[in-house]
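Table S2 (continued). Query chain:
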Amino acid sequence: MTKTTLICGSLAFDTIMQFEGRFGESLLADQLHKVNVSFLVPTMRTEFGGCSGNIAYNLKLLGGEPRIMGVMGQDSGPYLERLQQLEIATNNILIKPESYTAQCFVTADADNNQINAFHPGAMAFAHENNVADAGPVAIAIIAPDGQEGMLKHAADCFALGVPFMFDPGQQLPRFTAAQLIDLIDKASYVAANDYEIEMLMERTGLTLVDIASRLTALIVTRGEHGSEIYTEGKRIDIPAVKADAVLDPTGCGDAYRAGLLFGIVNKLTWETTGRLASLMGAIKIARQGAQNHHLTLEQIATRFEAAFGYRY
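Corresponding output:
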């Protein structure tokens, strides 16, 4: 039986800038209707990113079998070469030569708050990919991507009987209440951070218990406060793993989701699945960039045992 995980989501280049102050000290609460601010960013770097690329990278570190479904543009060469070197399948990546690959411009402050600007580029053509073209898969994730593509891929998965995780992320505000409820009802799992789950409840009129009751599991992440998994009418609290350093939050949620997907495919308990996801987030935040942490399977297992007292 296949253990391939289909990862539907954005592929992007991230330009990451660091502001040494705090956004809150530069933004006046009573003047937000006419914002005109400039942040001096002494450091800047460009990284490989996008939700599907980040999730696939972390899942590969865990020994998983990721298959990316996404869209890139005329500047895709270096990213495709990298994925091929990592032995991550690129067969279902569509190239749109008239577009640029999506670009994310991230400015982070001293408290790791972020202000992002995102150019979707080729991502807008995500709906031209078909889930059926990926072949047999054990599970899929519908991560932030072109809105039309997210809706199509969810419908594709549902029609094909492929269980999937809905991860609305930054695309959540673009969906109507009816669309969000439909996506929840089609999904087996929903993953959201604390801000997103509040918005999801506000948009849909559903309570947290209502959402969880429609799913196999609802996963809510709360940063340094850990995370919660709601399944079978119970709540499982997952502790945060202490990171070696807190350098860059970009991609931490994607690393966490890779841990979830690995645990689900390999039928780990929810307690172990959540803890592995928590560990992957902590490993990522200690390195700059979303795909620059390099650990072997043994190193990950050792870190897990050190944090939780047993091997997964």
